[in-house]
Amino acid sequence: MITHLDRDALRPKVLACIDNYLSISDNYSLTIGMYREGQLYVWGEGANMLELQYDIGSISKTVTAHLILDLVERGVLALEASVDRYLSLPEGGYPTVYELLTHTAGYGHLTPLEITLPALMRHGYAKRNIYEACTAETVLKCLARRKRCGNGAKKRKKQYGYSDFAYAVLAVVAERVTKRPFADLIEDFVQGRLGMTGTVVQADPKTRVPCAVSHDRVLPFWKWRRENPYVAGGGLVSNVEDMLRYLSRQIEDTDPCIAGAHRLCEASLSAGKNEAMCIGWHTYKKSNQLWHVGGVGTFRSSVIFNKKSKFGVVVLGNAKGVASANVHYLAKMLYSEFKIKKIDFEKTV
Is the residue at 204 inside a domain? Predict the structure, then answer.
């Protein structure tokens, strides 16, 4: 059962942040979900709030991580295996499944530059999917050019570097070992295993309203072809009801493919930085907080949870430009409000 919180359940400073976000345009949307000790709460406006569809962007990576761990649990993959065990690649050194999952393979955020930079220069980020033209063959060619050793290749240091490319490689690996398209795999997993029945790779654009921008122009949704391996890193569309189910699984579930993703990756630790990685999820040194943010086009999303305190928050937003960054800021604010007991969960609609 989902409880709708009244506006007054939140303090004025939180409401001011929300109001500032929504007041910029009538076409901006914001939906908030919270999980607290087995109870689900939502805050937002509109009769269709629970069904409103948002691109969740890179939060898709956390779902992919759970899917890969499920394949490991079933003996289909090995975490410490190099990916060339599963892919046809030239001889050389390649990252392991675990390194790709934890962003410690040494790839940079915009890898491969030959794909991302031209698209960014032509279209910018919000207007068009910068990975729209990618295929499994594209990923394999880029991977072969980035082997760590052999045939004159440079050795690549194993270190943290957030990477969409790493998850595209994982999608190709999953396809090869299961002999199924990755889009089918992740939809079956998220809808069947995780119970998120409204979460899909590509929602019907006719049922969705994109965010309006200046001069009455609208930015189109990012288009995802089902055969695009970058779906693994940012291609899912969901709603707050499904994301609350997802939060509850993160906090309460002991299934190895869920709880196993919460283990700290020691290789992601570095001096002077507080952030670290688990499997698919970000965390902080000596912290029980796990989190991830996502963004594609005009959509932004943020999930933060704490298994020890049994609390989590998800914020889904659709806005243009600088305003869109307030989604993660708001999620962190709500997380802090919970910690100091300033959310009145008794005030319901």
Answer: yes
Q: Are 131 and 201 in contact (CB under 8 A)?
A: no
CA distance 100 to 157: 13
Residue 14 lies in a domain: yes
pLDDT in tens, 24-55: 777 788 999 999 999 999 998 777 788 889 99
3-state secondary structure 252-288: HCCCHHHHHHHCCEHHHCCCCCCEEECCCCEEECCCC
- Identify whether 84 is part of a domain: yes
Domain count, the chain: 1
pLDDT digits 0-9 by tens, 295-343 = 988 899 999 999 999 999 999 998 876 677 789 999 999 999 999 999 9
CA-atom Rg of the chain in angstroms: 20
Domain range for 295 is 2-339
Kindly report the pTM of this predicted structure.
0.93
